[in-house]
Design brief:
The chain has 464 residues and is of the alpha+beta class. It has helices spanning 10-17, 22-32, 50-68, 106-113, 170-175, 178-181, 213-222, 239-247, 261-273, 293-301, 344-364, 384-393, 422-426; strands at residues 38-43, 76-77, 84-88, 101-104, 118-119, 123-126, 135-141, 158-166, 186-193, 208-210, 229-232, 253-258, 279-283, 320-325, 365-375, 397-399, 429-431, 436-439, 445-447, 451-458. It binds S-adenosylmethionine (SAM). Keywords: Methyltransferase, RNA-binding, S-adenosyl-L-methionine, Transferase.
Length: 464
């Protein structure tokens, strides 16, 4: 079974491949079409130890394997990153599609390839005679052209992702509204997926969070300590915010911003559910969120933070011990990616936008403080070029060396970015799709999504 490599629109392909040899670019496009070889999850160490979480997850996975008639699947503790568990992903496996078809959209297809079952709301179309218990072949609608509820066989472009068992009939799926279906649970249980990996089910409630290794590393490299004042500039949905809170033992203050009101509302609920007291989330445009010097003075005279969830305008200058800038990006490192959906205009818009966020981050960071800049894209303009920009624009920022324990988990930055010195390039954390991100306890290569980050320290006033 093989997947066709990701095909970017031609103009996008030209831009992205510019920094690679043809062979490397082809390998990247192949890797982007399929899921990473490893499923990583982070343990919420405020709730349980990693060992407790591993045991619980192993029990859950054992139960699933029994149900699906799969051989035993081992949950490992990551040898280097202290709060990470991981499992291997198997595939591509040879699976013959059965006759009856179910169609899902590309987002749902991406999740299926990463081990998920299909929730009732995810099913776009099923053939007219589909009943609970039927074995169905699951296809992804590649062009977004399948009508929801369609009963005829879909004849558009589609990709097979495996066979599953329908858990409800066609009638239930399409006579109920999307609202009624929400919470109804699994619509199709994937028993013969092309890429096999146990799903995490409701392990989230038990403190196990699906999170890619590079995202977890971001938290460890930022390394916030209990009692510090930390800023997460683009925080929603909050995967990294909650990690920072765990690293700080929920002691200190994390100011979590997001521009979107709805996302902040969800983030506030998430923080409440997690019973975190250190995180305060606000709706704020982080490109223009810096107080003037006078306003900063006045704020610091009586520092009172606003009520969580409210819209705020600005934050005090040079006060934050750590700043995380995990901003909006072209997300071209996501795996699998059935259909990269981006225009040249949008791709070109990101680097400048990220630079405006970098300007704000620099103003808010205290001397001696640490800034981590991250993206989940392979686009050099949003990565190495922005690192070079930050170093050239802010002479008081220095790029931090990779701690010895994290060496070998990522690749260095790309070559050929003129303004990036060799030292700075070596200090970038680039996670190239298809390349290893370390080695597991059993010597197997680990692999994740495409990602990039760099850590900077702001020099103390007397050191520059
Ligand atoms: C990559 S996501 C952040 C993911 C998050 N850090 C996590 O780990 O869960 C980028 C976020 O930036 C937000 N965003 C975009 N522009 C922003 C701005 N000017 N100010 C604040 N947030 C912004 C988006 O709404 C989006 O939620």
């Amino acid at each position: 079974m093989s997947f066709t490599p990701v095909a970017f629109p031609p103009e996008i392909d030209t831009i992205l491949r510019a920094n690679y040899s043809d062979a490397t670019w082809i390998a990247i496009c192949k890797a982007l079409a399929v899921p990473p070889r490893t499923t990583f999850c982070r343990v919420n160490t405020l709730r349980c130890t990693r060992e407790q979480a591993r045991e619980q997850l192993q029990d859950f996975v054992d139960m699933q394997c029994k149900q699906k008639n799969w051989p035993q699947w081992i949950v490992y503790e990551h040898p280097v990153v202290p709060d990470v568990l991981y499992m291997d992903v198997q595939g591509p496996l040879h699976v013959d599609p059965v006759q009856k078809e179910v169609i899902i959209d590309t987002m749902c297809g991406n999740a299926v390839l990463r081990g998920a079952d299909i929730f009732a709301t995810g099913v776009l179309a099923a053939e007219s005679a589909t009943k609970p218990g039927d074995k169905v072949a699951v296809y992804v609608d590649l062009d977004g052209a399948c009508l929801r509820g369609q009963s005829k066989k879909y004849t558009g472009r589609k990709a097979f992702v495996g066979n599953g068992i329908a858990m409800m009939g066609r009638e239930t799926l399409y006579t109920c509204s999307a609202k009624q279906l929400r919470g109804k649970g699994v619509g199709v249980q994937m028993v013969e997926p092309i890429y096999k990996s146990p799903s995490l089910g409701d392990m989230f409630a038990k403190g196990v969070i699906l999170q890619n290794l590079p995202s977890v590393l971001v938290g460890h490299v930022l390394a916030p300590r209990p009692g510090e004042l930390v800023l997460d500039m683009c925080a929603a949905p909050g995967g990294k915010t909650t990690h920072l809170a765990a690293l700080m033992r929920d002691q200190g203050t994390i100011i979590a911003l997001d521009r979107s009101h709805q996302k902040v509302d969800r983030l506030v609920n998430y923080i409440r559910e997690q019973e975190l007291v250190s995180v305060k989330a606000y709706c704020c445009d982080a490109t223009s969120c810096v107080m003037s010097e006078q306003e900063t003075k006045e704020f610091l005279a009586t520092p009172v933070w606003w009520s969580p969830g409210s819209k705020i305008q600005a934050l005090p200058r040079e006060c934050f011990d750590r700043v995380l800038l995990d901003g909006p990006c072209s997300a071209m490192g996501q795996r699998p990616n059935f259909k990269p959906d981006i225009t040249v205009g949008v791709l070109h818009h990101y680097p400048a936008y990220q630079r405006s966020l970098l300007h704000a981050a620099h103003k808010l960071l205290r001397p001696g403080g640490v800034l981590v800049y991250s993206t989940c894209t392979i686009n050099a303009a949003e990565n190495e070029h922005n690192v070079a920009y930050a170093l050239a624009t802010f002479p008081d920022l220095e790029i931090m060396a990779i701690p010895p324990e994290f060496e070998g988990l990522s690749q260095a930055g790309l070559t050929g970015v003129e303004a990036l010195t060799e030292v700075a390039r070596q200090r970038c954390y680039r996670f190239e799709p298809g390349q290893m991100c370390g080695v597991g306890v059993d010597g197997k290569v680990l692999e994740s999504i495409g990602f990039f980050f760099a850590a900077f320290r702001k020099k103390e006033a007397n050191s520059h």
